[in-house]
């Protein structure tokens, strides 16, 4: 006797969960746009464009963190290469944005500026179709999925795991970064893509466009959370957790971990790609620096700070760490690395369950006392 | 008939004429030095040079010092208050109104060459050697007879080799095709880009009318090219060897800690950085307090770097890593955090800029094996140093009780504990050892690359690749993997460029572990997968 999909989907979150999600969506889709557009700039309630970009950016990061949590928190696989999938999604969408510049570039040519600079006469083959929004959307999903599938298939088939897997993903990302740094690779080399002008014909800097992107990011984050909650509660999610806790036993029972790991790995990569595609138009630049080792490891710390194995944890972690980063880099730039480094140490030593775990412990103690 | 050939004929004449006149120079020849016309002077200088007479050196030297005068029809040398007859060298009465001989820039250049050539006949071996070396780069056709004479007299093998080469180069301008042919054949034996450039014009019809000589020249250029390429590849293999040594120094420590504890120390690169900064600190100390012994700061830095890095390692192990046993992924993150703190600490202490660590004087320069193959001393020293550290670690691991314990814990921690190995202490000691070796790697690194807060970041992936490739728990695997990776990446670099080479190596390793997840040298034994 199977419960209908819609019912199972609704039961992914409990009442409190749906309530929180509703509040979140109301805030991001209604309150923030109103406060930004309708409230005059000198009012205390006005939400600035800077704030919208910052929160939009952090929501992209939160999306990546949820993706990371699916693979690390529920699959027990620590990837140090999620920056790669994020960047691939960003680059795939960036190609479309570059083509949207049209002849408004500084050389006034049909080709993107950096190609003129390299004296290229026509677009390389992999830029085919990059002027179509639909194709760009497809690439955003397909490219990370394909890379993740090929890499994951070989890695999981040879049962590479633990720190081995982590370092190999790091090496892969590092190799990709070197590749993208080359001008000849065809993605703008060092500078990457920037100076975007419009998206679907609308000016990319207009407040309305920014709000739409902001809202889309919020929707994507909410949808991902619901999807992830449903996924981890499904049979698939339970087998995955079992693999995390005792892979050999799961194999003895008769499951092949390869396909479970591979599926969650590809899903995680695709989510990262989508986050990257949402990130690029809001921040206005994508370059190979996104694939640096440090970036990918930072993703892990967002998840660790929030609490892995929970879905709200990564979102909280991404917000806390990135807000702290914005504050530190403005107020005490020289202490940021100390803070981040100590955060890594303290969270792993004292907060294995992250902030969510701390809250639960706190709540439980209160409950006992009461 | 080119000008140089005429000069050559003149020179031959001069040579035969001057042969019997060993005691004194020909007075008319010396008189010609004071000729009115510069071109006549040049001819005279060349003629005089051909005599290869020590007296000629004396006269030409005087001329280059503006001490040559003309008194009537006799050339005289006036040195302060004393006067000599230029041809015979005998002291004479100061002439009444000596007329100085003008030496313009053209003459001066000619004189410099002539003086260098005449030094080939000096009594001192070193002077002859230096002169022969100097002549390699600027030899002209009319010097051939002079070089032939020098060759006749020379007994030293090394100088003879240089002279033969110079003579062959000079003979390329000879009018006789047979002489040119012989010269080309002699030059074909050499390995120098400069000589290749000399031969190249002869491979074309315009530069060489005689077919046989031209074909010989083409063959000669080909054989020189072959040897040049060989030298280039030898150079690449050597730089691969030196890169491999660096990788080995970086990976040895990592292999020990990873083998014993199964944790990846992401701060391992920063331990290299600490070693390098320790070297810098010792250098500064020597500069300020023992400037006379500055060349010996490096040996002093070795123990300092080892112990400083080892101390930081012990601190890391005791305060962080110890508490995360069995949680390898968390250890990875925590050590990354430590690396961030260490980098920032280095920035605060020493500044964000790179600091300058100089090679001691005995490490600068190098051995020139071939004209285009130079082995710098600092890299040779580093290869030797890596070998030394390797022997040390090998001895420690295989010949001491500590090494035995470390190997026991690597193979089976639980069983080692059961038979009384103090595993916790072994962990600390192994970590200290690994960190100390990284510190030693930092000393080596400080000699060939920039010393800055971020210097260690690039090494963690590379050295882990070495560990992955080599397999855990065996030194041999680490050594082969480090040297193999170093040499392969340098050879690839010469072939496809640095970036593609790096990517190719990474892809190769990823594919490699598909086939052999345990590395080249897998530990044999039974493992429990937990």
Automatic annotation (TrEMBL), chain A:
Main location: membrane
Localization terms from the record: Cell membrane
Keywords, comma-separated and alphabetical: Cell membrane, Membrane, Transmembrane, Transmembrane helix
CDD domains linked to this entry: TM_PBP1_LivM_like
Lineage: superkingdom: Bacteria
InterPro entries, per database record: ABC_transp_permease, ABC_transptr_urea_perm_UrtC, LivM-like
GO terms under cellular component: plasma membrane
Transmembrane segments annotated in the record for this chain: 18-39, 45-64, 71-93, 133-156, 163-181, 211-232, 258-279, 299-323, 335-355
GO MF entries: branched-chain amino acid transmembrane transporter activity
Listed Pfam families: BPD_transp_2
Keyword set includes tRNA-binding: no
Membrane topology: Multi-pass membrane protein
Listed name of the protein: Urea transport system permease protein
Organism of origin: Rhodocyclus tenuis (Rhodospirillum tenue)
From TrEMBL, chain B:
Single GO molecular function: transmembrane transporter activity
Pfam families given in the database record: BPD_transp_2
Cellular component aspect of the GO annotation: plasma membrane
Membrane topology: Multi-pass membrane protein
N-terminal signal peptide: 1-23
Primary site of residence: membrane
GO biological process: amino acid transport
Cellular location(s): Cell membrane
Transmembrane segments: 237-259, 296-316, 328-350, 377-397, 464-488, 494-513
CDD domains: TM_PBP1_LivH_like
UniProt-listed SUPFAM superfamilies: ARM repeat
Keywords from the UniProt entry: Amino-acid transport, Cell membrane, Membrane, Signal, Transmembrane, Transmembrane helix, Transport
InterPro entries given in the database record: ABC_transp_permease (IPR001851), ABC_UrtB_bac (IPR017779), ARM-like (IPR011989), ARM-type_fold (IPR016024), BCAA_transport_permease (IPR052157)
Family per record: Belongs to the binding-protein-dependent transport system permease family. LivHM subfamily.
NCBIfam families cross-referenced by the UniProt entry: urea_trans_UrtB
Listed name of the protein: Urea transport system permease protein
Source organism per UniProt: Rhodocyclus tenuis
